[in-house]
Design a protein that fits this description.
7 strands; Rossmann fold; AB_hydrolase_fold; single chain; 220 residues; 38% helix; hydrolase; alpha/beta; Alpha/beta fold hydrolase
Length: 220
């Protein structure tokens, strides 16, 4: 097995001038769910996403969240203006923001239906995560997505967010998200809501609301 190279994990989604955005992958590891959102954010500047190691042949998936944070912090030469992540991606965004704050940066953070204290997953959750990961045209690709999902769900079950962050943050919450710890970790946290399930946030009928929440947060 090999380790993914830096340039393999950082995926350009939209070019442009201005404030850069970095999107962090959810537990399935892919960045396909972010394509519609990236198109909306491109007017503000370049948009990159971080995919997970393990999705390409020969790569080893990460099974420890601090290891992922360490790896991803090294992907960019300077902190982006916005860190955004859905589900586990939100936790990665938060931990990266706390890491960048040590360098004196205060990027905006958007947590899309993320939880600071995730509950252990079950088989149904695993199946939903694998299905949401995006295009996997072959059986080998589906097996790699499943392996990445297993590694990430295990990593999340062992991780408790303890990092505090004083920069601007937005939590976009779905009705089933009952996590109450984010306010205790943030000094400047706003909360908005989506009237949909966790795996529906990027559906066209809900994406527009998500985009509105994000843009209002950034313009506020």
């Amino acid at each position: 097995m090999t380790t993914a190279h830096r340039t393999d994990l950082l995926v350009p989604l939209a070019a442009g001038d201005g404030a850069p955005t970095l999107l962090l992958h959810p537990a399935g590891g892919g960045v396909g769910p972010y394509l519609g959102l990236a198109a909306e954010l491109a007017a503000r500047g370049p948009v990159h996403a971080v995919r997970a190691a393990g999705l390409l042949p020969g790569e080893r998936p990460d099974d420890d969240l601090p290891t992922m944070v360490e790896r991803y912090a090294a992907l960019v030469d300077r902190p982006p203006a916005l860190l955004l992540g859905w589900s586990m991606g939100g936790v990665l965004a938060w931990e990266l923001a706390a890491r960048f704050a040590e360098r004196g940066a205060r990027p905006a953070v958007v947590l899309v239906d993320s939880t600071a204290d995730p509950e252990p997953g079950d088989d149904r959750l695993r199946e939903q995560v694998v299905a949401s990961a995006g295009f996997a045209p072959t059986e080998d690709a589906r097996e790699r997505v499943a392996a990445v999902t297993d590694a990430h769900l295990g990593a999340m079950s062992r991780h408790r967010v303890r990092s505090r962050y004083d920069g601007p943050a937005l939590l976009v919450r779905c009705p089933d998200n009952t996590d109450t710890r984010w306010p205790s970790l943030a000094r400047d946290l706003r909360t908005r809501h989506l009237a949909c399930g966790h795996f529906e946030v990027f559906d066209p009928e809900h994406l527009a609301t998500l985009v509105t929440h994000v843009k209002e947060f950034l313009d506020g």
